[in-house]
Design a protein that fits this description.
The longest helix has about 35 residues. This protein has about 350 residues and is mainly alpha-helical. The chain contains 17 helices and 2 strands. The N terminus is likely disordered. The chain is elongated and about 85 Å long. It has a two-stranded antiparallel sheet with strand order 1-2. A hairpin with a 2-residue loop joins strand 1 and strand 2.
């Protein structure tokens, strides 16, 4: 993971610039909780930018639900024909049905796939936050300068690197400023206390403590450092637990909403995915433990905003369906003639 963050992608650089601009805006208002508020604003803006795509996804899913009888008719038509030619014809007919109705079987996965590069880029930003947020960069520069100016500092940092498992191929050279900052970004308050105690007579302790107060003022929210990974040995573990709970609620709510318009066959398929859903939830928990706490906050807020947007869109499409009913159109009209033609 450390090596992944070393080479910041183009998207990571863009996000880094954007996060810094948001941070500067927030910091002018309040230094305390500034990174936390920045993450909230970042998540909200990303969700607003992706909202048109979410509208398109909901429309496509609505269309897909309406053409389920035609899709099922095609599948039944080729049910016992497993030869390659029949399978190709079935795929072509299904594609034609989707195209004619402006629907796609893959639209529902699109937003999930888009989240992958976003989280990857945000991960890179958080792992080298001092490169992207200028005020934090200044703080880490000062800390590196103070400790590298102390005699015999290197063995102490080497020991810390071993504890943080930053050895082997990704070993750090503590004669290089950026490598010192790369270690410092992983340190907890307890690590800083121990390091200061070891170099107590070789550094200006009061100055270091003043700088650390400013650092924590920016990075910390509700006593949790957002740059560090959550730990099962501290109450920061609450973040992965909240992430899992909100994600589970979001998925469950989404499935419940979609189930209302699904046919029985599709509902049966969705029930079969329950085990996979629980596996994914457990995976999210352990992944959250291995990433900076800021990413847990982003993922949790993303899930909450998604639930709100889904509710808004559901009501919006429901109102349109109701308008259609007033004009004498059935909400889930199925062209029986088309289904009959497909079966024949």
């Amino acid at each position: 993971m450390f090596l992944l963050a070393q080479n910041t992608s183009a998207l990571g650089k863009l996000f880094g610039w954007f996060v810094n601009e948001l941070f500067e805006l927030v910091y002018r208002i309040t230094p305390a909780y500034s990174l936390f508020i920045t993450i909230i604003l970042f998540t909200l803006i990303i969700k607003l930018l992706l909202f048109p795509l979410m509208v398109k996804q909901q429309k496509s899913m609505k269309q897909t639900q309406k053409i389920q009888p035609q899709i099922k008719a095609i599948q039944d038509k080729y049910k016992n024909r497993n030869d390659q030619e029949s399978q190709q014809k079935m795929a072509q007919e299904l594609q034609a049905i989707y195209s004619q109705n402006n629907a796609s079987p893959f639209t529902g996965c699109l937003l999930s796939f888009i989240q992958i590069p976003i989280i990857y880029a945000l991960f890179g930003v958080c792992k080298q936050i001092y490169l992207h947020i200028s005020k934090l960069g200044s703080i880490y520069d000062k800390l590196a300068s103070i400790f590298m100016g102390a005699s015999d500092y290197k063995p102490l940092l080497d020991n810390l690197a071993v504890c943080k498992k930053l050895t082997g191929k990704q070993a750090l050279d503590f004669t290089i400023v950026d490598d010192v900052k790369s270690l410092f970004i992983t340190l907890s308050n307890a690590d800083w206390t121990a390091l200061i105690a070891d170099l107590n007579d070789k550094i200006d302790v009061n100055l270091v403590n003043e700088i650390l107060i400013k650092k924590n003022e920016i990075e910390t929210a509700f006593g949790i450092n957002l740059i560090n990974r959550p730990s099962i040995h501290s109450y920061s573990i609450i973040l992965p637990l909240i992430t899992v709970a909100v994600t589970f609620l979001s998925i469950r709510k989404s499935l419940k909403q979609n189930n209302e318009d699904m046919d029985e066959q599709t509902k049966g398929m969705m029930k079969g995915m329950t085990g996979f859903m629980y596996f994914m939830i457990v995976s999210i928990f352990f992944t959250s433990l291995s990433l900076p706490a800021a990413l847990s906050i982003y993922w949790t807020l993303n899930s909450l905003f998604t639930m709100v947007q889904s509710k808004i869109l559901k009501n919006m499409f429901k109102d349109k369906d109701d308008d259609g009913d007033d004009k004498g159109k059935k909400k889930d009209y199925v062209d029986v003639k088309k289904v009959k033609e497909i079966k024949e």
